[in-house]
């Protein structure tokens, strides 16, 4: 299926590593012009150079999304590369660590909300007017299954990700008549570098050798982390494919949705 993303300009925040990098690569493979964002220049440029080396088009912007002036600067820079941003994927954010209810501090909650929710608000508000002017745009916010199935630990993270889902639904209604869609993707257990390290460490504790094949590690360790009905973790490519579809003109009648990518972990109705 041709997703009709050829030449579309996409900004992916937090795309110098992890899920964001996977999304940037996926959009680039569909022909989009990708603006890679991060705070580490070397890592962001590595991602962009990788895309260019595979025949794609990519640029780099740097900045801290918790600082208003830096967001304004990097969006202004991004808009000069080709033309105004048409697709924004708000992926930057993440967890502050191992907060629990016995030790949680309000400052940690405020910081997590700032990195996840307000960062997305700052970026989106800066690109929205250009999308409205052209009568076309896509906003995709990366939440987490933790926003729907919050664990006992890291309550600040689950709350921030839940807020992103609600925020997206509100935005979708506000811009529905402007040719703009807004959707959320909520990944569950995904095979990122950090998860790979955690799984391999756990596998050693369970008696598997250091050089055990990934599938063997996955089968042994997955139930310890999450009882995923599919029996495996998701891949970065699967996240990227979902985002690419939502970013495409073919998903024009999908807005306000929260797409779970969890292998069936959500309990359902």
What does this 3D model show about the protein?
- The chain is an alpha/beta fold and 269 residues long.
- Helices cover 47% and strands 14% of the residues.
- Strands 3-2-1-4-5-6-7 form a seven-stranded parallel sheet, sandwiched between helices.
- Strand 1 (9-12), helix 1 (18-29) and strand 2 (33-38) form a beta-alpha-beta unit.
- Helix 3 (68-81) runs parallel beside helix 4 (106-134), helix 4 packs parallel to helix 5 (155-175) and helix 6 packs across helix 7.
- The longest helix has 29 residues, at 106-134.
- The model has no long low-confidence stretch (mean pLDDT 94).
**Structural class, please?**
alpha/beta
Give the low-pLDDT segments: none
Record field, number of beta strands: 7
Inertia-based shape: globular
- Radius of gyration, in Å, reads 18 Å
Summed up, the helix count is 8
Helices and strands in order:
Blueprint: E1 9-12, H1 18-29, E2 33-38, H2 41-53, E3 57-62, H3 68-81, E4 87-90, H4 106-134, E5 137-142, H5 155-175, E6 180-187, H6 193-205, H7 214-225, H8 236-247, E7 258-261
Parallel strand pairs: 1-2, 1-4, 2-3, 4-5, 5-6, 6-7
Helix pairs in contact: 1-8, 3-4, 4-5, 6-7
């Amino acid at each position: 299926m041709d997703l009709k993303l050829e030449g579309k300009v996409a900004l992916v925040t937090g795309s110098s590593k992890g899920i964001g990098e996977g999304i940037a690569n996926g959009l680039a493979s569909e022909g989009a012009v990708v603006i890679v964002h991060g705070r580490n220049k070397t890592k962001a440029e590595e991602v962009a150079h990788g895309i260019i080396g595979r025949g794609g088009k990519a640029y780099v912007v740097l900045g801290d999304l918790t600082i208003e002036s830096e967001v304004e600067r990097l969006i202004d820079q991004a808009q000069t590369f080709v033309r105004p941003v048409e697709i924004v994927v708000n992926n930057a954010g993440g967890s502050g660590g191992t907060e629990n209810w016995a030790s949680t501090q309000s400052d940690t909650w405020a910081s997590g909300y700032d990195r996840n929710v307000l960062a997305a608000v700052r970026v989106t508000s800066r690109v929205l007017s250009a999308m409205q002017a052209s009568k076309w745009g896509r906003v995709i916010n990366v939440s987490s299954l933790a926003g729907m199935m919050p664990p006992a630990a890291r309550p600040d993270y689950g709350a921030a990700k839940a807020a992103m889902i609600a925020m997206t639904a509100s935005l979708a209604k506000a811009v529905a008549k402007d040719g703009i869609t807004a959707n959320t993707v909520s990944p569950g257990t995904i095979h990122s570098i950090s998860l790979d390290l955690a799984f391999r460490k756990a596998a050693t504790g369970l008696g598997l050798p250091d050089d055990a094949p990934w599938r063997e590690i996955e089968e042994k360790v997955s139930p310890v982390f999450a009882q995923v009905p599919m029996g495996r973790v998701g891949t970065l490519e699967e996240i990227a494919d979902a985002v690419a579809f939502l970013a495409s003109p073919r998903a024009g009648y999908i807005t306000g949705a929260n797409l779970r990518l969890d292998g069936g972990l959500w309990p359902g109705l």
